[in-house]
Write a structure and sequence with these properties.
The protein is mostly beta strands. It folds into 2 domains: 5-273 and 286-355, Lipopolysaccharide (LPS) transport protein A like domain (lipopolysaccharide transport protein A fold, Sandwich); 517-700, Sandwich (lipopolysaccharide transport protein A fold). It is 6% helix and 58% strand. It contains 4 helices and 45 strands. It is rod-shaped. The protein starts with a helix and ends in a 9-residue tail after the last strand.
Length: 709
């Protein structure tokens, strides 16, 4: 799954830009200083009477340090209504500890003593600047260096000296380095210490993280020190985010301590996180959406991200060349250095779904059938990030499960479980390998046959490794140490096994063994088809058929004793009762033996067919009984043999030769009938019938008793 960690990191950086609205918080401070300054102006210049003053300065000091200074080029008071005008006003605020150098200036102010309102009649400019060395310098000394002051501008500002409240219905503009903003209407309630930017709040961000921030309304509070944005929304060329409410908590120095977004949080991102590396395949832009009910970012004192947490139905959806989705109740991101993500911890039932590439589905039917969606679930998962922008590995906590979901409904899902899974990701952030250890288990559902439910196919081992092919899901699965497989009556055992979902084949190695309904097969190498149940064995094949019931009416294979087969290869067919043996095949029960290059054996009916090749004929060892009751071993060779134990008939054709101690018979075809065994373990007796009239028969005996039949 390709998940852009850099997108997440950039969103955290964008969220931090909201701190630019802190400038409005400092606005409280500035308005209060304006109040104190303007309240004293009338008293200093005697506004109780009509008069005019040209070029004056008023200041207030405590303990030898100036708190503020008011300068105006002209002040006029009128008899009518007692209102006063101040022109070209400049106010400088130093603070009680001389740590500020804030300046407020405007051309025209009006003071109404009846209402207590002080109204700006023209544009008001405010510059906010700290002065960390003010206490060490002489009184009223400006900072040695002006470091990017915060600037505000508005008009029609109304300040009431009685309540301390201030408001303006006009636009308020503010700017800081790399950001500027505005709002329509502002209201400050002194008693509550709350400033509200009433509507249409906008912030434009410049620099590395360009974008815009919007809100229907913003509220700034003194206690607790926080900024609340209502219906917040952020946009950039390739990212968008929104939430019902965003709260920024501030420290005493107005730096950001924590940011909390609540209600319908949504983050959308378009574009590649970074250019592909040299030699890597290029990909089209992806589209990622993250939703949650709440998001919280905590900050370090140096204005760096410490952690980010998403809670409440967390959902991530990535669309593009490698679509993927993830769900969790909670997701926590850890950061180091300069806002570099190092780990993402998801808990409260984590679910990760990697969807097959759409391009793979257009490349042909076979790829559609082989492609798989992969789903990983666990109570908790940890994702570790390399370089701040690439998933390197992931670990599960609690009982996990990996589910393979084929493109079509057949042959059904395959589920993999273990005590713990560890996943590794490639350079593009896609899953490349998953390792499971302790109590590994793989379960595949079997589709019903003719409306009848079929047993699941189950394999277990100590460890399991899944290897992924980009865009197609799991390419192969390797199970190691104490491998065991079962499906109904079929079982298999080995040291190790390798499973390929594309063809449903399991390759067993390390003392492989198949057991099915009393049949047991060993070989150097064994393969199983999980879909059909067919088994394939190669190299020193040995099969034993046990759990046989005696058949009194049978003959050659009628005993309850085991039937043994050896060969170089074997195919056990899906019905588990029939098998084909090739390569110097030999089948025997007690003293009865059949040898041939190929033997097909059906256990339930106890029938077989054998075929010769250019180097070896079919050979059968039987016991013949003369009229006097004497038992004589008889060897029959031919090109083909078909035997059915229920009929006690062996049909030979193709160069048939019968040899005993005193006779040789040759023919093109021959039927041999066996005497019923009668439920004993004794070797069956035979009677040779005449060959078909069209088949010439020759019989010979040692001299002097040679005769021709």
């Amino acid at each position: 799954m390709s998940i852009s960690i850099s997108h997440m990191r950039r969103w955290v950086a964008v969220t931090l830009i909201f701190v630019c609205l802190i400038v409005a918080g400092v606005y409280f401070y500035a308005r209060k200083r304006v109040k104190n300054a303007l309240k004293e102006v009338p008293e200093k210049i005697g506004l109780q009477i009509q008069q005019s003053a040209q070029g004056f300065t008023i200041s207030k000091s405590e303990q030898g340090r100036t708190l503020f200074k008011v300068q105006a080029s002209k002040a006029i008071q009128f008899k009518s209504g007692g209102k006063a005008e101040l022109h070209d006003v400049a106010i400088t605020l130093y603070g009680s500890d001389s740590s500020r150098f804030d300046q407020i200036y405007g051309k025209d102010f009006e003071y109404d003593p009846r209402s207590g309102d002080i109204i700006s009649k023209s544009e008001v400019q405010i510059d906010l600047q700290s002065n960390s060395e003010g206490a060490l310098s002489t009184d009223q000394s400006p900072p040695k260096e002006l470091k990017n002051p915060i600037h505000l501008r508005t008009t029609n500002l109304v300040f009431n000296k009685n309540t301390g409240d201030a408001s303006t219905p006009e636009e308020v503009d503010f700017s800081v380095p790399q950001a500027s903003g505005s709002a329509i209407g502002a209201k400050y309630v002194a008693q509550a210490g709350v400033l509200t930017l009433q509507s249409d709040v906008k912030v434009t961000i410049s620099g590395e993280n360009q974008g815009k921030i919007f809100a229907q309304q913003a509220t700034l509070e003194k206690s607790p020190r926080q900024i609340v944005l209502h219906a917040a929304r952020a946009e950039s060329p390739d990212r968008r985010g929104q939430a019902d409410e965003l709260t920024l908590s501030l420290r005493a120095d107005n730096t950001l301590d924590r940011a909390v977004a609540t209600g319908n949080l949504q983050i959308q991102s378009t574009g590649n996180a970074s250019p592909p590396k040299r030699g890597a395949h290029s990909s089209s832009p992806s589209f990622m959406t993250v939703t949650a009910q709440k998001g919280e970012v905590t900050m370090k004192p140096e204005n760096l991200v410490q952690a980010a947490v998403l809670t409440g139905d967390v959902h991530l959806k990535s669309e593009g060349v490698q679509p993927a989705e993830a769900w969790a109740g909670r997701a926590k991101m850890d950061f180091q250095g300069r806002n570099v993500i190092t780990r993402v911890h998801g808990d409260e039932q984590v679910r990760l779904l990697q969807i097959q590439s759409s391009s793979e589905m257009r490349n042909g039917r076979s790829q559609i059938q082989n492609a798989q969606n992969v789903e990983v679930t666990a109570p908790a998962m940890d994702f570790f990030v390399a370089g701040g922008n690439r998933l390197a590995r992931a670990e599960t906590s609690g009982p996990p499960q990996v589910t393979l979901l084929p493109a079509d409904s057949e042959p059904g899902p395959t589920r993999i479980t273990a005590d713990k899974f560890t996943a590794k990701f490639d350079a593009l952030g896609q899953i490349s390998r998953v390792h499971g250890e302790a109590h590994a288990r793989l379960v595949s559902a079997t589709p019903p046959q003719n409306g009848t439910a079929m047993p699941d196919r189950i394999s277990t081992s100590n460890t399991i490794d899944a290897f992924f092919h980009p865009g197609k899901g799991i390419e192969s699965l390797t199970q190691q140490e104490n491998f065991a497989y079962s499906s109904g009556t079929q079982q298999a055992f080995a040291d190790n096994a390798r499973y390929t979902p594309a063809n449903q084949i399991i390759v067993l190695s390390g003392s492989p063994r198949i057991v099915d309904s009393g049949m047991q097969t060993t070989a150097r190498n064994v393969r199983l088809n999980r879909a059909t149940g067919e088994g394939f064995a190669e190299g020193d094949v040995k099969t034993t058929y046990n759990e046989l019931k005696p058949q009194p009416s049978g003959a050659l294979l009628a005993s309850s004793d085991p039937i043994h087969v050896t060969s170089q290869s074997m195919i056990a067919h899906s019905n588990s009762a029939s098998a084909t043996y090739k390569g110097t095949a030999r089948l025997w029960q007690n003293a009865n033996m059949i040898e041939a290059p190929t033997i097909d054996f059906e256990k339930n009916q106890r029938t077989l067919s054998a075929n010769a090749d250019a180097t070896q004929k079919v050979s059968t060892v039987l016991i013949a009984t003369s009229n006097s009751g004497k038992a004589t071993p008889v060897n029959v060779t031919a090109a083909h043999l078909v035997y059915r134990d229920s009929e006690r008939k062996a049909h030979y054709d193709g160069g048939v030769t019968v040899r005993s101690s005193d006779m040789t018979i040759t023919s093109n075809q021959m039927d041999v009938y066996l005497v019923p065994a009668g439920g004993t373990h004794a070797a069956p007796k035979i009677a040779i019938t005449d060959a078909p009239s069209s088949s010439p028969v020759q019989a010979s005996a040692p001299a002097p008793n040679r005769r021709t039949a």
